[in-house]
Amino acid sequence: MINVQSQFCKNADAYESYSIIQKKVVKKLLEKIVDNPQCILDIGCGSGTVYKSMAWHPKKFVAIDFAQGMLNMHPKNENVELHMSDFNQKGFLKKFADYQFERIISSSALQWGDDLDDIFGQISLLGAPVSLAIFTSGTFKTLLKTASIPPLLRSADEIIALSKRYFNAEHEVLEYSLEFASVRDMFRYMKKSGVGGGRNVLGIKQMRELIRNYPLNYLEFEIVLLQEKNYGE
Ligand SMILES: C[S@@+](CC[C@H](N)C(=O)[O-])C[C@H]1O[C@@H](n2cnc3c(N)ncnc32)[C@H](O)[C@@H]1O
Predict the structure, then answer these.
(1) Ligand 1: distance of its center to the CA of 48 in Å?
(2) Which residue ranges in the chain fall short of pLDDT 50?
(3) Is 126 within 8 Å of 99 (Cβ atoms)?
(4) Residue 148 has what pLDDT?
(5) For residue 168, what pLDDT is reported?
(6) Domains in the chain, please, with CATH?
(7) What sign results for the dihedral spanned by CA atoms 87, 93, 94, 96?
(8) Is the C-beta atom of 48 inside 6 A of ligand 1?
(9) Quick check: CB of 65 below 6 Å from ligand 1?
């Protein structure tokens, strides 16, 4: 169990401090990449957690995101190439067809893919091993149940089954819980962390009711990791 208050750094940028879980997920994802790939694509790069967490310096790091504000926060140098691009647009990876990626990473982003089948298909066409971390329907599961809201995200089983059509990936399901001092803090976190994907699924009345009835002092998260070995391994 992670305690939010103990982890928040008062002076850190809001997004950075609210992304505790995303940081843990990136760490897990990178742990399994042992061949120091030199040309990397990061889909839904955000402010650069993947790039900043890497223990090696790749020759080329191509990072894409549809939010200019996020790209602005991403580290920049001569090895980093930033592109504003929306993974829900058909053919969003076409412009990278000539790149020789050695690994394709996406962490905590593809749960917002409208057509994951199409996105996986596009990724697989680039011909590089993948490391993908995707939030699943187990995220906020008690909260959604308490508010009688159907799951917003795909289940781990669904994602794993879909991945088998395109990748030869090992999978692991991670579960985290994040403890809060009050339910109010918990909702503030959800709003600011970006985990909710900016979706406002509750009206004020429903929200008040949920604050009264939520039985836990923590939020639940579930993430599926899909990792392909380097094809040469
Ligand atoms: C929760 S953040 C994760 C950021 C980073 N990968 C990390 O692990 O910290 C999700 C990111 O996905 C981006 N994103 C969401 N939907 C997207 C889309 N349709 N196309 C491109 N990027 C998208 C958001 O702008 C955000 O930066």
Answers:
(1) 10
(2) 3-14
(3) yes
(4) 85
(5) 97
(6) 13-139+149-176+220-227 (3.40.50.150)
(7) positive
(8) no
(9) yes
